[in-house]
Specification:
Blueprint (H helix, E strand, L loop, with lengths): L2 E5 L3 H12 L3 E5 L12 E3 L2 E3 L6 E4 L3 H8 L4 E4 L3 E5 L4 E5 L12 H9 L10 H26 L31 E6 L6 H7 L4 E3 L6 E3 L4 E4 L2 E4 L2 E4 L3 H4 L9 E11 L11 E4 L7 E4 L1 H4 L6 E9 L5 E2 L3 H12 L5 E3 L1 H4 L6 H12 L3
Helix pairs in contact: 1-5, 1-10, 3-4
């Protein structure tokens, strides 16, 4: 029987394990913590379920593959995804993404309209700041994006962010529905109170999982890694860790930003107004986002749990949208030998959601 070694038991690692065992591989997962699921795992705080950052399943409208795959393991329910942003200079909360109708509620709406009439060609934008100002004008950029982005990435200038190819046409002001992803994505979450946890357990049934263990050394060209002072090898290796680690940072270390999460239970059934449950803070407060979990998880209680997110270097959650770093990550991945795969948000050094991870695994392993 062919062997597969998987580094990391988060969502990507568990999904890869599930698909590889279905291909007949003997699968071993090396996980540095004591649990599976990574940031997508549900924990409980005085009975309240939460994850480290909310993790909706976003599925492209018309794409049945991801929905059908996850539905085999979990009961999914569709949600509507609503965000709001507190803009301090207006002392007001507005829907986010920026909604065209709400410009009329702004004290400087005339200035905003003038800037929208006289925008530069967004296709000429060279950095994140120009991308946004050319899209919506300086005033809306300053209200919603400027400070938020700087504190999110812990940078002094948004001009160092130069990867925005995901939307070459620029940022569109929202019209019609105020729900995020409307008409583009189906937003879903498990009905199970422990979220995706049972999915992770089903993925690793029949696999060997080595918990509380990190890989000590890599000889990735020979498909070998040292674990607990013993060298292990496999016919297939799947890595979900940062690709620079596989090569001992030969071309330099890849930067990430993380989050610290402050959990607060409040003596009220619900705090965010229907239908919102994300609140972004675009001002000089240290935190970027407050999230109320009940609408996402379906948990019933007379109290509510919110989590306050503050940017931090204490963990690695978000790869930087900087082309020099993206190219560095690609240089590492290009050196991987055949049947060694680097997947997931860290493995690809790209902000992948769960649907992309599932589709990547389907594509990568279909010919094995």
């Amino acid at each position: 029987m062919k062997k597969a070694l998987i580094i990391g038991g988060g969502f990507a690692g568990c999904t890869a394990a599930n698909m590889l065992k279905q291909k007949g591989f003997q699968v071993t997962i090396i996980e540095k913590t004591e649990v599976l699921g990574g940031g997508c795992r549900t924990f409980f705080y005085y009975g309240h379920p939460y994850t480290y950052g909310p993790h909706h399943l976003l599925v492209d409208v018309g794409d049945t593959h991801v929905w059908n795959y996850m539905s085999k393991y979990l009961n999914l329910r569709e949600l509507k995804h609503y965000n709001m942003t507190f803009v301090g200079r207006d002392n007001a909360f507005y829907t986010y993404p920026i909604h065209k109708d709400e410009i009329e509620l702004m004290p400087d709406k005339e200035k905003v309209h003038e800037e929208l009439k006289d925008r530069a060609d967004v296709s000429t934008a060279r950095d994140f700041e120009e991308y946004w100002t050319y899209s919506v004008g300086e005033t809306l950029y300053d209200k919603f994006i400027n400070t938020y982005s700087k504190k999110m990435w812990k940078i002094k200038n948004n001009k160092i962010l130069d990867e925005f190819s995901f939307s070459p046409k620029g940022v569109a002001l929202k019209t019609g529905s105020k729900a995020c992803f409307e008409g583009k994505k189906i937003v879903a979450y498990p009905t199970e109170i422990d979220g995706y946890n049972s999915y992770f357990e089903k993925c690793v049934e029949g696999c060997t999982v080595i918990f509380n263990t990190a890989v000590e050394k890599f000889d990735i060209q020979k498909k070998k890694m040292c674990v607990n002072n013993e060298w292990m090898t496999g016919d297939v290796i799947v890595s979900t860790i940062s690709p620079d680690m596989l090569f001992d940072y030969q071309y330099g270390e890849l930067p990430y930003i993380g989050r610290d999460f402050l959990k607060v239970i409040l003596p009220i059934e619900r705090i965010t107004p229907e239908p919102y449950y994300f609140i972004h803070y675009a001002n000089d407060e240290p935190y970027t986002r407050v999230f109320e979990y009940k609408l996402l998880t379906g948990y019933k209680s007379l109290h509510t749990l919110i989590i306050i997110e503050t940017p931090s270097f204490n963990n690695k959650l978000y790869p930087y949208p900087i082309m020099s770093e993206i190219n560095k990550a690609k240089r590492y991945r290009d050196e991987l030998p055949d049947n060694v795969f680097s997947i997931g948000r860290m493995g690809k050094y790209y902000y992948d959601n769960m649907d992309v991870v599932i589709k990547d695994c389907m594509r990568l392993f279909e010919r094995l």
